[in-house]
């Protein structure tokens, strides 16, 4: 037995350093048997989450694809790698000859956050001139709101949070989705901080907070502008900061005039006295820290919702104080050289772009896509409008190749399934969106069966197609050298050797850095308050047929759809997907906990078990988790109900913007 330390590859801000215990194994040499956190890592602090401690069970799952599979009729048959690669290359040559490169698309997201297996592999598609994928399913509304205001995403560091005296956890279920922030929140609380959770339903984070503020979905812009209205009325804004560090403060002051506490109370469902109390506390406490999640961005006006909140610390000059400000992400600190990462330099302005949130539409036959490769993603579960997505996957004239570690519902619809390695079985390098350590993992374990890294698959296909693009064939060393080829001070002292040797290297950030103390690295050098944000009511309004709003946030024991195939984690989430609803909404429908109901939206309908829950905002239904459809009684994923509607900024997904009807089954 021995322990190794590796970075968790999953799409989670914490990017933990994991302590993994390996035991001898007859076939593989060694096998992972236990996962916990590295006790010496300052951010991981010795614990892994409730999900990833079960990683060995998913890595050695009996259904994990271990050999290339080809669909023959309704079944899969095992074939050799040579046969799989030769046949796929031949099919691609035909598609390219008959339809041109735009008929080929990739569909990928963040199954691994590794820059090599997750991002650099796009080089194959760019070398061919395939249609580009706009990766909008998660963060683009938030990113655009931040970047237009502050430039790079330099969020307040978790290490500085203990200085804060007032904390808003706003549209984030951080105890579930950013669990390594919790120790820092606890330290702040010990130092006297008060913690509020602003969210439409009561989650683990609400119970941890001192107070839960239940807000109507999609109304955060009104609340934030309501705070500003009072702050300006009371004259408590930081005039000096607005004057010196910001552009557009007069416009913002004008915009906030409309948002009286009475109006804001009507919109948000929060009592006027509470709005005044929160605004007063925010305006009179320094440092104050806001941790925003993506929850409020997953609405039609999600970009403006988030942006309104992001402006609060500017109005109060909180960026001048250690622990003051707001965090959406810490990605901006990773100032790597990404020019040729994924061969991004090959993308032409004329290359057609596919918005991944609209996969269902992209797969309509008339759009002309003839071949699709899916890697690091499970779109049949996670993409909106599932029924139409499945229809697309089933097209006879579409070649579907899925690279997977698990026999997902997406893999089951493939023409070819190619077995993939996990983070313990391949080499990679990792950034983080919750801390500032660059992570590196060597290949540590032999993969079972014939699983291969994504990189290997695309290099092999590249050779068969005669591709000459050199970045496609880069080794890890060449990629690392490229990424670190920069003069940026945050990366001073970083060499490939050091990164490999230390495994987790903190960015070279100046001690006590206050990134927006005097302005922001935007084009003007100032924090951009202009254009002032506004609250706009959703065009999607409840109707007699669809009288409820449905939210579909993450579950504690899954990471998106990852881990959805582990029975014990399904049980920990209640055994099957549950629809939470307020007692006063349930009673008139004669629904009690344990009853079943049909939930229906304009996109489709699902059958779900009801759990009556006083912690949900009235008129709102919450269904936690991207469960595998297979775990639901009707075999349908929750995205059967969601739509391809896009956000106001960033053309992002709107997974919390649904109106549905509920009828007892
Ligand atoms: N355990 C676990 N951790 C995860 C994930 C997971 O699936 N499971 N997913 C990972 C990924 S990919 C991401 S992007 C992050 C996402 O992590 P979060 O940002 O925490 O998740 P969101 O889905 O954005 O929802 C967060 C909260 O926003 C609330 N919300 C919805 N609409 C509104 C609104 O209009 N206003 C306000 N104030 N709140 C609203 C929801 O009720 C929910 O409690 O988590 C990552 N971490
Ligand atoms: N209704 C609803 N839908 C949502 C959300 C929501 O809140 N509500 N959240 C959305 C968000 S925030 C996100 S980020 C997306 C996430 O969507 P995805 O990024 O698709 O995330 P997962 O569902 O975890 O699927 C990742 C898949 O990648 C595979 N994988 C992991 N590592 C590798 C690898 O190295 N190679 C290969 N070939 N495969 C690998 C895993 O086995 C897994 O099946 O879902 C979105 N969908
Ligand atoms: S999923 Fe997140 S919290 Fe869990 S081990 Fe991975 S990085 Fe850490
Ligand atoms: Mo995400």
Automatic annotation (TrEMBL):
Residues 1-63 form the 4Fe-4S Mo/W bis-MGD-type domain. CDD domains: MopB_3 (cd02766), MopB_CT_3 (cd02786). Gene3D superfamilies: 2.40.40.20, 3.40.50.740, ADC-like domains, Dimethylsulfoxide Reductase, domain 2, Formate dehydrogenase/DMSO reductase. Its cofactor is Mo-bis(molybdopterin guanine dinucleotide). Keywords: Iron, Iron-sulfur, Metal-binding, Molybdenum, Oxidoreductase. Belongs to the prokaryotic molybdopterin-containing oxidoreductase family. This is Molybdopterin oxidoreductase. The lineage of its organism: Bacteria, Thermotogati, Deinococcota, Deinococci, Deinococcales.
């Amino acid at each position: 037995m021995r322990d190794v330390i590796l970075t968790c590859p999953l799409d989670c801000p914490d990017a933990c350093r994991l302590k993994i215990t390996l035991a001898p194994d007859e076939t593989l040499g060694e096998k992972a048997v236990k996962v916990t956190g590295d006790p010496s890592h300052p951010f991981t602090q010795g614990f892994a989450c409730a999900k990833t401690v079960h990683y060995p069970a998913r890595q050695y799952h009996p259904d994990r694809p271990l050999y290339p599979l080809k669909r023959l009729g309704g079944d899969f048959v095992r074939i050799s790698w040579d046969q799989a690669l030769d046949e796929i290359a031949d099919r691609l040559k035909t598609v390219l000859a008959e339809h041109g490169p735009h008929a080929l698309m990739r569909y990928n997201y963040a199954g691994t956050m590794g820059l090599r297996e997750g991002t650099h592999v796009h080089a194959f598609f760019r070398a061919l001139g395939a249609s580009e994928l706009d990766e909008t399913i998660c963060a683009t509304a938030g990113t655009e709101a931040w970047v237009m205001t502050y430039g790079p995403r330099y969020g307040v560091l978790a290490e500085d949070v203990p200085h804060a005296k007032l904390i808003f956890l706003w549209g984030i279920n951080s105890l579930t989705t950013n669990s390594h922030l919790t120790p820092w929140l606890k330290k702040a609380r010990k130092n006297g901080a008060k913690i509020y959770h602003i969210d439409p339903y009561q989650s683990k984070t609400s119970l941890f907070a001192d107070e839960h503020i239940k807000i109507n979905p999609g109304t955060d812009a009104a609340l934030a502008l309501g705070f500003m209205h009072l702050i300006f009325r009371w004259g408590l804004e930081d005039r000096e900061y607005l004057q010196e560090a910001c552009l557009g403060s007069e416009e913002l002051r004008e915009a906030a005039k409309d948002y009286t506490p009475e109006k804001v109370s009507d919109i948000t469902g929060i009592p006027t006295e509470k709005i005044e109390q929160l605004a007063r506390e925010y305006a009179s406490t320094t440092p104050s820290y806001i941790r925003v999640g993506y929850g409020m961005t997953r609405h039609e006006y999600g970009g403006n919702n988030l942006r309104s909140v992001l402006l609060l610390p500017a109005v109060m000059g909180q960026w001048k104080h250690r622990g003051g400000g707001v965090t959406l992400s810490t990605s901006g600190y990773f100032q790597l050289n990404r020019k040729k990462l994924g061969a991004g330099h090959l993308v032409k302005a004329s290359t057609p772009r596919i918005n991944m949130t609209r996969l269902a539409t992209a797969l309509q036959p008339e759009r002309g896509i003839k071949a699709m490769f899916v890697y690091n993603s499970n779109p049949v579960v996670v993409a909106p409008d599932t029924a139409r997505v499945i229809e697309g996957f089933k097209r006879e004239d579409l070649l579907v190749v899925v690279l997977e570690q698990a026999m997902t519902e997406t893999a089951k619809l493939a023409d070819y399934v190619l077995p993939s390695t996990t983070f313990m079985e391949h080499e990679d390098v990792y950034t983080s969106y919750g801390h500032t350590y660059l992570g590196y993992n060597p290949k540590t374990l032999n993969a079972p069966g014939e699983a291969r890294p994504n990189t290997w698959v695309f290099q092999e296909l590249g050779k068969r197609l005669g591709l000459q693009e050199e970045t496609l064939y880069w080794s890890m060393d060449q990629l690392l050298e490229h990424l670190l080829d920069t003069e940026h001070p945050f990366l001073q002292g970083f060499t490939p050797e050091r990164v490999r040797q230390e495994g987790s290297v903190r960015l070279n950030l100046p001690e006590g850095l206050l990134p927006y103390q005097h302005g922001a690295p935007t084009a003007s050098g100032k924090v951009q308050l202009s254009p002032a944000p506004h609250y706009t009511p959703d065009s999607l309004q409840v109707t007699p047929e669809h009288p409820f709003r449905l939210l579909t946030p993450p579950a504690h024991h899954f990471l998106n759809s990852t881990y959805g195939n582990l029975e014990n984690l399904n049980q920990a989430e209640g055994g099957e997907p549950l629809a939470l609803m307020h007692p006063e909404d349930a009673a008139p429908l004669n629904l009690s906990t344990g009853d079943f109901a049909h939930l229906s939206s304009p996109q489709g309908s699902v059958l779900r078990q009801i759990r009556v829950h006083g912690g949900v905002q009235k008129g709102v239904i919450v269904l936690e988790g991207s469960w595998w459809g297979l775990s639901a009684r009707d075999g349908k994923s929750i995205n059967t109900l969601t739509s391809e509607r896009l956000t106001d900024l960033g053309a992002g997904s709107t997974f919390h913007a649904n109106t549905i009807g509920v009828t007892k089954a």
